Amino acid sequence: MLESEQIINPTTRSIAETGWYALTRDDPDLGALLDSEASYQATSLSMVASASLAPPSVLCANGTVLSNVTAEGYPGARYHPGAVHFDAIEMLAIERAKRVFDARYANVQPHSCSSANLAVLAALLPRGGRILALDLESGGHLTHGASASVSGKHYDVACYSVEPDGRLDYGAVLDRALEHRPDVIIAGASAYPRWIDFAQFRAIADRVDAFLLADISHIAGLVAAGLHPSPIDYAHVTTTSTYKQLAGPRGGLILLGKDHRRTSPDGRTELWQLMQRAVFPGFQGTPDPSSIAAKARALAIASSGGFQATMKRVVDNAKALSDELVTLGYEVLTGGTDNHMVLVDVQAAGLTGIVAERALEECGILVNRNKIPGDPLPPAVGGGLRFGTNILSQRGMGPFEVRECAGIVHLVLSGLKVQDATHYELERALRDSVRDRVNALCARFPLQFDYE
Ligand code: DSN
Q: How confident is the model at residue 244, as a pLDDT?
């Protein structure tokens, strides 16, 4: 062991400082890569819809001595000794999750929302049971029964789709439910820019005696801030990731509302007990204590006025981004947005998703390619771009600056020369001038947090 690492001064702060000193001195390659990543984030205009910035206190909570704790089980019922403080931290995270989402039950142990979804499906469905979910092309998620996912391999999957106007038609969803009689209906999306009507989904689920699972990973911040209707008391089970819009660590949550004591499909347990067992021992062994501490911190922030103000800006900014892209001639799916997300069909502009994504990335602008409804292109190419305003808003930008971002994006997309579906040319002078504008915007709106 190296000298600096022998001195473990028992305070979280000094351990963090000692660790960072040892890392940069003893592993300069890794230290330099981590520094480069921090600079890259500071100087990139990220509009990745499934990302947000975890504030420093969240990052700090995620890298503490708590990582040294092994503690299978739940607070007060662990399979290892020495969990007294971790128990208190997990209880704090649970209470905060319940408060933020007005839930009656919260499980804070899922390592991700993907694992939360798989655990919930395994608990609610019989082997080979049937799921009804939004198809991937319409904006669904891999763990909602996509053929490449274990959820698509182990269950019988029927899909509903968006209509030609890009929106959900709840009458059509009901028709699909009546036709397929699913055991579980999933409401939630990775790429859907409009409100989801969870009350209607529940009415459909009740018509066919199915469980309703709401996955709010993308909109959890808006739900927490009261800017999107909450599914908590409509869905039997709600899941979310904690990093996409909650500015937390990698991880997931399972939440239950008024149905928390409803009898489970096994007829013996209540829903909350089923969820406890579904996560541990059903799908996970030991929880990640540091990630749970970071979730506790992020959930405290999510109930603050500063977070709510940022989420309001997220929605206003998405509308401004959408309006400006329409004005610039882009085909915005559904004609606009109700949340943080704007979907653009770039084929209409003679591009593919991958070409647009790569050209923008060269200029320091991060937006990801996406399949769009009816897209003939494979997912690796994609016919669309998915924009999100979480990080621009966290930086403090408002609609005026977001319109400027749309203009910069347009400079790149209208200036590149497409060779084929995956190749293009971008003149160096154009790239450099866009890069300068990106740097200037990033310098004016540095990574910062109103709510720290
Ligand atoms: N589900 C993917 C996305 O929406 O980007 C990854 O988080």
A: 98
- To the nearest whole percent, how much of the chain has pLDDT over 70? 97
Q: Who contacts 38 (Cβ-Cβ below 8 Å, separation ≥6)?
A: none
Total-model pTM: 0.96
316 alpha carbon – ligand 1 mean position (Å): 22
Q: Say if ligand 1 is within 6 A of residue 117 CB.
A: no
Indicate the residue type of 310: T
Quick check: CB of 50 below 6 Å from ligand 1?
yes
Name which of 16-25, 157-166, 227-236, 237-246 the model is least confident about. 16-25
Separation of alpha carbons 185 and 115, rounded Å: 17
Which residue among 50, 134, 340 has the greatest number of ligand 1 atoms within 8 angstroms of its CB, and so is best to mutate?
50
387 Cα to the center of ligand 1, angstroms: 12
Per the DSSP assignment, residues forming a β-bridge with 332 are 344
In this structure, the residue with its CA closest to atom 5 of ligand 1 is 50
Q: Whose CA is nearest to atom 6 of ligand 1?
A: 50
Q: Which residues of 230-241 are buried (b: 16+ CB within 10 A; e: fewer)?
A: bbbbbbbbbbbb
Query: How do residues 346-400 score in pLDDT, each as one tens digit?
Result: 999 999 999 999 999 999 999 999 999 989 999 999 999 999 999 999 999 999 9
Has residue 3 got a pLDDT over 70?
Answer: no
Which ligand 1 atom sits closest to the C-alpha of 49? 5
Strands in 258-323 per DSSP E = none
The average confidence (pLDDT) of the chain is 95
| Cα separation, 435 vs 443, whole angstroms | 12
Ligand 1 and 109: CB distance under 6 A: no
Cα separation, 324 vs 368, in Å, equals: 19
Atom number, ligand 1, closest to the C-alpha of residue 241: 7
Nearest residue by C-alpha to atom 4 in ligand 1: 190
- Ligand 1 centroid distance, CA of 139 (Å): 10
- Catalogue all structural domains in the chain, each as residue range(s) with its CATH number: 66-302 (3.40.640.10), 306-444 (3.90.1150.10)
| C-alpha span between 97 and 116 (Å, rounded) | 15
Mean pLDDT of 435-442: 98
Tell me the CA–centroid distance for residue 218 and ligand 1, in Å.
Answer: 8
Measuring from atom 1 of ligand 1, which residue has the nearest CA? 190
